[in-house]
Amino acid sequence: MHILIFGASGGVGRALVQQALDSGDEVTAALRSPEKFDLQHPKLHIRHCDAFNAADVAALFTGNSQYDAVASALNTNQGVKPGDDLQRMLDNIVTQLQKHGIKRIVYCASAGVDNELEGERGQAAMEFLRYPLADHRAAIGIIQAAGLSATIVRPLGLTNDALSAHYLEAAQGVPAGSGRIARTDVAHFMLKALHNDAYIGQSVALSYPASE
After folding, report:
1. Residue 63: is it exposed, middle or buried by C-beta count within 10 angstroms (0-12/13-18/19+)?
2. I need a surface site. Which of 8, 75, 98, 135 has the fewest CB within 10 A?
């Protein structure tokens, strides 16, 4: 499988690039600053792309670039302030997916994007993150309106722990687990979802078991 990965320099994105290459996939990493990306592999193609720039995104699809699927691990620079970073970038990406007939996409969002966090603590978290969550929802809306074969990923609290490949998944609500998961394991799930059509149409929350 040839996977085009946006947000490849971030914690989740970089782990996804490495794990996809380790599994034998071909990867194109779309990077705003490719000179800062130090991974090398015979099946890795590094391309400059500012996802805010429609022409940059379109250029990724020219020539002989044939992608089987796209993964987004894009972040926003808006913090917890109002903004539309994610929806602007996804609008550019989805336009090209439609133009080139690419259907499969896995999009990394955040727990709370489905208004699924319960209890006082969950409600407080969603209120604090209301603006980035709204941006994620708008980006997901663009994906859904295009009729793409999408999987939405909803990780809980992100950590920098090593890959465990042992975590809980919940297509409804959130897992009754620890409330945290490593970026490496989020990448592990994204790669799994890209290779498993059973995840198409699902919005999956991720967390470690409570004992971890």
Report:
1. exposed
2. 98
CA distance 92 to 84: 13
Gap between the Cα atoms of 113 and 128, Å rounded: 12
CA–CA separation, 58 and 6 (whole Å):
13
Give the separation between CA 98 and CA 169, rounded to whole angstroms.
29
Under a CB-based contact definition with an 8 Å cutoff, are residues 181 and 205 in contact?
no
User: pTM score > 0.90 for this model?
Assistant: yes
| Radius of gyration of the chain measured on its C-alpha atoms | 16
Rounded Cα gap, residues 115 and 123, in angstroms = 9
Cβ atoms of 101 and 69 within 8 Å: the answer is no
**Residue 46: closest CA among 87, 14, 86:** 14
Contact 139, 106 (CB under 8 A): no
